Queue: 4 jobs
Job 1
Amino acid sequence: MMRDQVGAPPEVLEEMAYRIRRLSMEMITYSRWGHPGGSLSAADILAVLYFDVMTVDPARPDWEQRDRFVCSKAHAAPAVYAALALRGFFPIDEIYTYCELGGRLEGHVHRGGLPGIESSGGPLGIGLSVATGMALGLRSKELPRPRVFCLLGDGESNEGNVWEAAMSAAHYHLDNLIAVVDYNKVMAKGFTWDLMGIEPLADKWRAFGWDVLEVDGHSLAGLQEAFHQLRWVRPRGRPLVLIAHTVKGKGIDRAEFNYKWHTHAPDPETADQMLRALARAYGRPEEGYSRLGLEHSKETFYGGE
Ligand SMILES: Cc1ncc(C[n+]2csc(CCOP(=O)(O)OP(=O)(O)O)c2C)c(N)n1
Ligand SMILES: [Mg+2]
């Protein structure tokens, strides 16, 4: 497939992936809580989904024909909020209310307050069931039929509920359902292969009746290509899973492949250094933590692990 047949220009996607990483770290630092590792590993996937692949309209977040996104690994909320804010669903400054009591940006994605959030999460393993139900319901819509994208974690794939949903989606021939596994090889407390091996992952999904594509989850062009294929090239009748090989903590050196940064907020000075290094790595003007020296004076909700 020729590159120029695929949506958004690479420089736009790169800028968005960079901004998603930055804003995720800004909100985690300011609220003093959050999940950097799983937010950073999903940044490129989210950039491609929100800026190239999904049909959404920030001015009409409830538009019936929109594509849906279910963040089953709901602790990656900072990256999802960053993508939504950058896409225009709400003002970017609202990210600094992340985890604030009474605010719209809960620690884990939560449906009801914030435009663009389609489902609530927290307990891992439930999102694919929600997405399967949505995809089933949306089959009666006019063409082009809305699609449902569901982001799963690799540790999350330990949950039996994921596989019940996988079985149902294949049974109902849900070709408007696309799961993306953020396969960053790290769970909350260590590597997947040490704690609960999930290989052979692609074979498991195939055995459950899904089409499978494997992709470098940090290659924006590779992700575009994979999503493009699923729209135009694939035969109908089967759900599809994209196994995206990623690096937990991608973009922040000391967080990469490091489970200690699964749930951890840097202190403001460390965040400042991290964000400067991130800007340099992206070849951007050096830009540190924007709230350095500003204390978070509001009451903050620290929501679970
Ligand atoms: C049912 C359930 N068990 C445990 C947790 C606590 N928990 C939150 S994130 C996480 C690790 C998830 O690992 P993975 O799916 O690989 O996420 P990622 O690496 O993308 O952050 C755990 C155990 C939870 N939220 N839900
Ligand atoms: Mg993981």
Note: The longest strand covers residues 177-183.
Job 2
Amino acid sequence: MKKCKICQEEKDINDFYKSHLSKDGHRGTCKKCYVKKSNDIRKVKRTETVSDLDNKIKLIISKDETIIILKQRISELEQENIKIKENAKKIGMIAFEISKKNIELEERVKALEDRQT
Ligand SMILES: [Zn+2]
């Protein structure tokens, strides 16, 4: 007879699984308790895996959402960039017109100065 560590019941030695690690060659817990314990561990592992998967899926979804937001932001920035380039072009054209007029005015001033002398 052997006392189970979990249920504390005195049971026949055949109600315990064999183990090379223990002194009497049998596990400290009876077969019934051992099976229950390993089933509980398996259940915990299973729920852990499910929640792990769930977390991974959530992470992937949040990454996808981030990518979508970033893509939207990029297209917004590209549109802004186009506007900036257009404005820069306009400014460049205006600057060119101003410098052209400036040259014209300088020429006129020179012509007036030449006439005076
Ligand atoms: Zn037991």
Note: The mean pLDDT is 91.
Job 3
Amino acid sequence: MENPSPFEPRLTLQESAGRLRLTDKRVWQFIEQGRLAAHYDRTLHRWFVFESDLQEFAQTARGPGRPRRTTPSPVSQSNKDGGPPKPGQERKTPMAETRTLAVFNQAGGVGKSTTTRDLGYELATRGQRVLVIDADSQGSLSDFLGLDPYGKPEAEIFWTAVCADMDTVPPLATAFGLTVGVSNLSLIEGIERLERMKDHLRFLKVLDGIKADFDVVLIDCPPSVSEMTVQILLAVDELLIPVQPEQKAIAGLVIVQKEIIKANKRRLRIQNPLRISGIVPTIFNPNLSVHLNNLKYIETIAQTLRCPVLPAVRRLTAVTEASTYGQPLKVYKPSSPANDDMARIVDCLFAETAASV
Ligand SMILES: Nc1ncnc2c1ncn2[C@@H]1O[C@H](COP(=O)(O)OP(=O)(O)O)[C@@H](O)[C@H]1O
Ligand SMILES: [Mg+2]
């Protein structure tokens, strides 16, 4: 049978129990027996059942039929260290688990690296332990944080350990209170090695090994789709999509959407679908009517992606200057209104950390 859409509605166990007119406990028993497919959302700390699985179960099961989706057995996951808890034992503490976000858009020049830097810095000023990973061989993020990626030998580059299948922890730098996984042109060769490795979960495993030390991991994706992007989209829980309110950039969102669908198909057996945390309109000029109009198109696309449009980041010269000087905007020019834009984005994305400002 065909796989369901990755954006298919899903229900909590309580909602599923209500639909089936069963107790929560009975529904969980069906899941434990492998008769009803469920998946654990590590961001929301909850179990979910896809609507189509529930319908199929309601029609055929309660009999001996097997679920069509081959999710890992919740029983084995629940009992392993670090695996998802059983219902009722889910963690209630916000930010208790590391949030992993890829800043993703296949188009270049839409503000991915800038957004990663300033979002990361804003979170760090709120007391969050932030890891930002530069996944672009251009090394812009590293450069925008004053780290001179080209002055670094290959051994100091985050991806060397990942792409060489080395059993060592990737090297991490620090800048402005952020921990940084630096990248440079050596990543091009690294991606070739990653392709030869034929282990699509290589980055997922590396990330799982280091993320516990951080509250938030932000990955600045390259403006192309390669084995590296595939691995990033398999490894993270959430996506943030920066887009300029320009017609060409908006049209490019169709390609982004296709990549998300592809990634979610790959993730079906191992991960929950990607959570699209929002589209960020970037390099936005509120005085341009064309930009204001294009925001409406972005809203429409966000509806099809079932995600919010986050506050826009204004186009201001200081943002580019900050990059030239290798500093977060808030360090280079604390009075810049674009800092307020970034703070508003953090308020929306990380509501639970807003109180600590
Ligand atoms: N809010 C902004 N205002 C003005 N310039 C910006 C803004 N955000 C990004 N830029 C500039 O746009 C260019 C592309 O941004 P960048 O973050 O490198 O995009 P990407 O990573 O998507 O290629 C850079 O020169 C950057 O300084
Ligand atoms: Mg970039």
Note: Residues 289-305 form the longest helix (17 residues).
Job 4
Amino acid sequence: MSSFCVFFGKNLFVFPYSLPLQRIFKIDKMNTVRLTKEFDFEAAHALDGYGGKCKDIHGHSYHLKITTIGKPIEDAANPTCGMVIDFGDLKQIVKKHILSIFDHYLILRKDSRFRGLEKTNPRVRYVDYQPTCENMLIDIVGILQQHLPDEVKLHSALLRETANSYAEWFASDND
Ligand SMILES: [Zn+2]
């Protein structure tokens, strides 16, 4: 019988070709997939108390990258069979719960010296954190985790503030 050999670490294993590959490599178990969708939004913020020019109101074209992780649904009767999460569903979750409170909003600390702008500009959102790229990302992750389906886990998220500046969050860093 013909066979082939594979090294696992220092151990050499010899497999007869007659064995199904799935039994040898457990291919049926290797079905965890990361699924990413990207979004763009415009927002303004001010870093009250900061020493640099970011203390005053200015804006960014933010780029948000959401990566989920899970196993494609196997139930053939499920309309999302073969998907970790429907890209469309992820888009709707982000649109409804994130973009609706960030896109074209001015994000300010609740004790900001700019308080009162909402009288003439209703798209002001007050938050209980300094609205840096890092803190906005943490806020976004917290909101997303409340709205993702139970079987879908958030793997990571990235918020890009400028072409060469971004913050990243990884579930593995926050276990
Ligand atoms: Zn900024």
Note: Residues 45, 54, 58, 60 surround zinc ion (CB under 6 Å).
